[in-house]
TrEMBL record:
This is histidine kinase. Residues 336-363 form a coiled coil. Residues 420-634 form the Histidine kinase domain. PROSITE patterns: HIS_KIN. PANTHER family: HYBRID SIGNAL TRANSDUCTION HISTIDINE KINASE C, TWO-COMPONENT HISTIDINE KINASE. Its EC number is 2.7.13.3. Keywords: Coiled coil, Kinase, Membrane, Phosphoprotein, Transferase, Transmembrane, Transmembrane helix. It is an enzyme of class 2 (transferase). It catalyses: ATP + protein L-histidine = ADP + protein N-phospho-L-histidine. The chain crosses the membrane at residues 360-383. One of its GO terms (molecular function) is phosphorelay sensor kinase activity.
Length: 642
């Protein structure tokens, strides 16, 4: 269990890398495009760290590749990272000597580079090594150095890593009980602050251990089950393996019967991640259990697994670090396991022979087989009928959906129509009623009355034009509408639209600048186009300051004409700009933008029918620009167009 705690700490060292699966995919995609060898080595070392909690064999593959290139290029930082990753690998391979030697090389390299953060991590690794071999004084010394450097680096992720090692070094020291609890709480706080899922999971393992010490076995079990589920779902294979082993240990200690399933889970996660040496004791325990309980098939499976683990362990050790006695003992264990494997295989062969004899009793089950066939036939026809009913229900659902869509379209049309009529007819009629009240009260002179009546006439004509445009829009929304385009003289139509807005222009004293060549014509329906002109210009007048300027310009590009109306107002709010020409059922029904917004929606509908488009943008530092684009055609006589 102690070596497992060390390995959890080593996995925590890589916890600064978040979004593991996405990070791995991104780095792998970058490798083929990297030309700089030092950057290539850095990515290989980072991939090795990311694969440490997932798959040891892949971790070693990237570590060896990074070290090989770094050695050829004499790239010291790459060599240091390779040594650090190799130390982590051998630690998970239960080879403490090679792990210590690799950490020592990494520490010396990082000291030459002056990398305080990496030196701090290497010192913490050395403290863990001395703790494991029983030299507490050396472990505390290295731990003090790591804590001192971590405070000067000002890196919260590094500080959390060092605090985890501090917890491990002083866990059994009663004099540091309070500081150990503080370190664990601080790690949890930092992990939650930065949403570091991997560190949260590892912190949960230690918290479960503390719960056991306090006698809260149920709470520890619940927490470990959550960790297993979350770690397995997010690819943290080692953490799922260690949590299963920890839970199996607690279950075994309290003599609970379900400890076996967590032992099996621990071995399965270990096999998936390639942590062979760490699962060997549990594999041996499972083999012994199944052998004692008369389950030869399961015992043979774990016997084969032990054999495979020992073969991999033997292949991982170098010839110079394996003395004769260790080699002889290893071969003896291997031969013994092979013999056990053959014995179990013989038992399985005997079991198969017995099963083959039982097959002769199948003849008495023919009647039952016939009954099963009849039941299957019945279920088949029942399934067929259910499938047909499902198809019919799907068709009915599609019809209902189409009708709902049609009803929604009609409802949107009704809402737009009511809002538009309320906007375009209310104000002119109110003005007419006010003028009529003035006339009835005889409070106006003849000249003022004549002027107002002229205004009433002009307002009534504009209202009539608007009503005709609305009727045309309503007709376009109904089925059977036929669009009949013709050449439209843009300058002539804009001048007519300005005449209808003379009162508003005079009231605000706005200067309107029309910069449209006389030979610009577009293919459109003139009444629809004139509705767009009136609304674009009216919108510009509405939001222009007094004594401001409005510009109506034309641009021709590859057979397309773009007419733009620009004002000097405050501009369109950024949150409304992308949706200015869109209709939503939850659109506000009051406010300065409501009526104009619906009129712009109708302008968009008209442009869509005329094979054109509308655009809206803010022009420079102030003002808004509304524009439309239509196909250009050769002009005919303007008088016929108007």
């Amino acid at each position: 269990m102690r070596w497992g705690v060390i390995c959890v700490w080593l996995i925590c060292e890589a916890a600064v890398l978040r979004g593991q699966s996405q990070e791995i995919s991104r780095l792998k995609a970058q490798l083929p495009r990297i030309k700089d060898s030092t950057q290539y080595v850095d990515i290989l070392n980072r991939l090795s760290v990311l694969y440490l909690p997932q798959n040891l064999d892949t971790c070693l593959l990237y570590t060896n590749a990074a070290r090989s290139i770094a050695d050829r290029q004499h790239y010291l930082r790459g060599q240091a990272g390779g040594w650090m990753n190799q130390g982590n690998y051998y630690a998970l391979r239960s080879n403490s000597f090679l792990s210590y030697r690799s950490y020592l090389h990494a520490l010396r390299a990082y000291e030459k580079l002056g990398d305080s953060a990496a030196v701090c991590q290497a010192l913490a690794n050395m403290a863990i090594y001395y703790k494991y071999i029983g030299q507490q004084a050396a472990a505390v010394q290295y731990m003090q150095q790591a804590m001192h450097k971590s405070r000067s680096v000002h890196n919260d992720s590094l500080y959390a890593t060092v605090l985890v090692s501090y917890y491990f070094v002083h866990e059994d020291d009663s004099l540091h009980a309070d500081s150990v609890q503080w370190a664990l709480a601080k790690v949890r706080s930092l992990a939650n602050q930065y949403h570091d899922e991997r560190t949260q999971l590892k912190c949960g393992l230690y918290e479960a251990n503390e719960r056991i010490k306090k006698g809260d076995a149920a709470g520890a079990e619940k927490q470990l089950l959550q960790i297993i589920q979350q770690a397995a779902a997010n690819g943290y294979t080692y953490l799922a393996m260690y949590a299963s082993a920890q839970l199996a240990g607690y279950k075994g200690y309290f003599k609970q019967p379900d400890s076996l399933q967590y032992k099996v889970s621990m071995v399965q996660y270990g096999v998936a991640g390639g942590y062979w040496e760490l699962i060997l004791p549990m594999t041996t325990a499972l083999y012994t259990y199944y052998t004692q309980h008369g389950q030869p098939a399961a015992a043979a499976r774990y016997s084969h697994l032990m054999l495979s683990i020992l073969e991999k362990e033997q292949a991982a050790r170098t010839q110079g670090e394996l003395d004769y006695m260790a080699y002889y003992q290893q071969n003896g264990r291997l031969n013994a396991l092979q013999l056990q494997h053959h014995l179990q295989q013989a038992k399985l062969d005997k079991k198969r022979l017995e099963n083959r004899k039982r097959q002769y009793l199948v003849g008495g089950m023919i009647l039952s087989l016939v009954l099963v066939m009849l039941l299957l036939t019945f279920f088949y026809y029942a399934y067929k009928r259910s499938r047909e009913n499902g198809i019919r229900l799907t068709e009915k659902y599609r019809e209902i959906s189409e009708k709902n869509t049609l009803l929604q379209t009609h409802d949107d049309f009704k809402n737009k129509l009511i809002s538009l009529i309320a906007h375009d007819f209310r104000m002119p009629l109110v003005n007419i009623l006010e003028i009529m009240n003035f006339l009835q009260e005889h409070s106006l002179g003849p000249e003022e009355a004549a002027s107002l009546l002229t205004g009433v006439e002009r307002s009534s004509q504009n209202t009539l034009h608007t009503f005709d445009s609305i009727l045309r829009w309503i007709n376009s929304q109904l089925s059977g509408f036929v669009y009949a385009p013709e050449p439209c003289h843009v300058q002539e139509l804009v001048n007519i639209a300005l005449q209808s807005l003379t009162d508003v222009i005079s009231e605000k004293q706005v200067q309107v600048n029309v910069r449209i060549p006389g030979n610009v014509c577009v293919l459109a329906e003139c009444e629809m186009l004139q509705f767009v002109h009136r609304n674009f210009i009216h919108n510009a007048l509405k939001f222009s300051p007094r004594h401001g300027s409005i510009y109506v310009t034309a641009a021709v590009d590859e057979g397309q004409v773009t007419i733009t109306v620009t004002d000097e107002g405050a501009g369109i709010p950024e949150h409304l700009l992308p949706h200015l020409f869109e209709y939503h059922a939850d659109r506000p029904r009051k406010g300065p933008q409501q009526g104009a917004g619906l009129a712009l929606i109708i302008c968009r509908d008209f442009m869509n029918m005329m094979k054109g488009s509308v655009q809206a943008a803010n022009s420079g530092s102030r003002g808004a620009a509304l524009s439309y684009t239509l196909p250009q055609v050769e002009c005919t006589d303007p008088s016929t167009t108007s």
